[in-house]
Each structure stands twice: as C-alpha cells, then as structure tokens.
Amino acid sequence: NRDARAVTASRPFTVIGHRGARGHAPENTLLSIDTAIRLGADWVEIDVQHHDGELWLMHDLTLDRTTNGRGLLTAHPAAALRRLDAGDGEGIPTLAEALDLIEQRVGVNVELKSWNGCANAVAACLREYIADGWPAERFLVSSFHLPELWEFKQLLPEVPLGALYCGVPLDWAGLAAELGAQTLNISDEFVDARLIADAHARGLALYVYTVNDETRLRTLWQMGVDGVFTDYPDRALAAVGSE
Ligand code: G3P
Ligand code: CA
Questions:
Q1: Which ligand neighbours the alpha carbon of 230 most closely?
Q2: Which pLDDT score is estimated for 241?
Q3: pLDDT tens across 91-116, in order?
Q4: Please, which residues bridge with residue 242 across strands?
Q5: DSSP 182-208
Q6: Domain ranges in the chain?
Q7: In this prediction, does ipTM exceed 0.90?
Q8: Is the shortest distance between the CB of 45 and ligand 1 below 6 Å?
C-alpha cells in the first residue's frame, strides 16, 4: 500500500488505525490491531490504562461497553480482567502483548488514558522494546492529560510526543512547544486551513481524529493534513490512492 501511494500521492499521508481497526473488529483487541495492519495502516493507535501492575488496552474507564464485564476496570484484579471477552472471543490485551503482535510492522501511537502511574509504566515498557531494537521514533505517545505526557517526557525523552486536544486551547502552540511535541492531534471539527498552516509553520505534523468518511478523508488530505485516525484504514487508503 505504501508503494502504491508513493506513486500516486505527492506527499506522505499517515493512516493511523484507530483503536486498531475498530470499524472492522472489536476495538483495542489484538484482532483489531492485526486487521489494521492487514488493511495497510501505517500506524495503529491504542488506548492504554495502568492497573494492577499491567497496561491494559481499554478506552473507557468502565468495562461495560466493550467487554462482558461490569463496572470500573480498576475495580477488578488482573486475573479477572484476563478472563473477560472484549468481543469475538478476544481478550483485553496488554501493551506488551500488542507490541509482541505488531513486531515493528507499523508505528504505534500509545494514548495514555489513566493518570495513576501510566506514564511511568508505559515508559518502562517502551524502554525495554527500544533496548530490543525498536526505533524510538516508531512510537508516538499522546494524552489528553498533558501533565501525564509531561511526566512521560521526563522519563523517556527520545520517544516523540503528540499533543492531543479535544478542543483547540488558546495556547495550543505554546503547550505543544513546551512539550516538544512532534504532532498536533486534533478533532476533525476544529480543522481549518489556518490551523494546518499554523501547525506546519511551527514544525508540527497535524493528525486528525476520527475520520471515517471517504470524501472527508480525501478533502483533509487535499487540505494538507499529515495523517488521520480512522476506524477504516482501507477507506483512507482508497481516498488517497484515488487521487
Ligand atoms: O488519539 C485520537 C483519538 O483516539 C482520541 O479520542 O476518545 O478515541 O481516545 P478517543
Ligand atoms: Ca484514543
């Protein structure tokens, strides 16, 4: 897919499988990640929470929406979490299980979803994989909770950071600069030509979430956006490949 796009696309467009490929498989499962890779995603994005000595791939604070469990993830010991079904017979994977599956085939955006030692545990985990030969730049660590991201930066500064915002804070550029972020990760509703130009002028790549409509994917690419988070990596590839 990359080769095909190198011929048709005039510049890189990073297709990031959102929670794996959640349009095709249960989100944040190994099946979802594997599906994103099979469909040709360049990167996968996964949500990570720290609890009971493990890093779990889970978006919500509670288990109810995505698993057959009930209540807060943090109310259950690791042994109980391991027995849950996260859809299609898939378990809730740990970060290490996800990285072992990925085997450097795609870049990995780890979104820190909890603030209870998550930065520390993710840094310890990624440090091991980097020591094993993973290039640090094949990781991107992001969080809506910028203090957690700041803590991660102190622990493992060689890993690139994504400044992730749910709106566009007045001082988004200052915060991103202070973090030394490489990417600005913004919701689609806030993207316009000025923001794209501003991000680029500041040396930031602009990644947009979560975009599933093929026409919109194509428009964003034509506007100069650098990458998208999508539940359907196949649609993003088709949108760019048809240019
Ligand atoms: O990182 C982009 C996107 O995943 C952020 O929103 O709620 O899907 O984690 P959410
Ligand atoms: Ca996420």
A1: 1
A2: 86
A3: 999 999 999 999 999 999 999 999 99
A4: none
A5: SEEEEEGGG--HHHHHHHHHTT-EEEE
A6: 2-209+219-231
A7: yes
A8: yes
